[in-house]
Design a protein that fits this description.
The protein is an all-alpha fold and 103 residues long. It has one domain. The two termini are 24 Å apart. Helices cover 53% and strands 0% of the residues.
Length: 103
């Protein structure tokens, strides 16, 4: 699945806003997800290689925003049940197994 240029911009903004609402630092997120800061930057800017990895970050941020007592802003493109999208690795998303690389 490819996102249109506007969907990419919207998704980057939604990831950033939910990152801001999470109250976490980039270092905390990198540590929690066991990724480098470079990989996190690739995820936040949608310049990573795997199409499943942004879903992992999305789910993580939603969880952390809610743990922080706030309401996450909704995503407009990363929506629906990712288990039903044949092109996504739902096992990796459920396990938070981010694809190595982009470091």
């Amino acid at each position: 699945m490819s996102l249109s240029p506007q969907q990419i911009i919207n998704t980057i903004n939604e990831l950033q806003e939910n990152f801001n609402r999470s109250g976490l630092t980039k270092q905390q997120i990198s540590t929690d997800l066991n990724i480098s800061s470079t990989k996190l930057e690739h995820l936040l800017t949608l310049t990573q290689n795997s199409i499943s990895d942004p879903w992992i970050l999305r789910n993580y941020l939603i969880e952390k925003v809610r743990e922080n007592g706030r309401e996450p802003i909704p995503f407009t493109s990363l929506v629906g049940d990712y288990h039903r999208y044949w092109f996504l690795n739902s096992h990796a998303i459920d396990s938070r197994e981010i694809t190595p690389g982009d470091n």
